[in-house]
Design brief:
Oligomer: single chain
Strand content: 5-15%
Mean pLDDT: 91
Helix content: 25-40%
Low-confidence stretches: none
Distance between the termini: 44 Å
Radius of gyration: 16 Å
Strand order of the largest sheet: 1-2
Order of helices and strands: EHHE
Shape: elongated
Number of strands: 2
Length: 67
């Protein structure tokens, strides 16, 4: 998914705004966009960024000790 940055956007803010998560997605987005980290923490407005598709999350079964 390609998105365009707004003023004062960061990579983690973009991931949260469009994907509602940051865990693992920020790192994958930085890998998809070589040189993006070199632009600094605050990205310029109007920059086209390719967001990483989030991996499907697996739910872990929890054990209830006293039930």
């Amino acid at each position: 998914m390609q998105v365009r940055t707004q003023q004062n956007d960061t990579v983690d803010l973009l991931c949260w705004r469009y994907l509602q998560r940051t865990q693992g997605v920020v790192e994958a987005t930085l890998l998809l966009n070589p040189g993006l980290a070199d632009r600094g923490p605050i990205l310029p407005a109007g920059l086209l960024v390719e967001l990483a598709e989030p991996a499907s999350t697996t739910t872990r079964r929890t054990v209830q000790l006293w039930d």
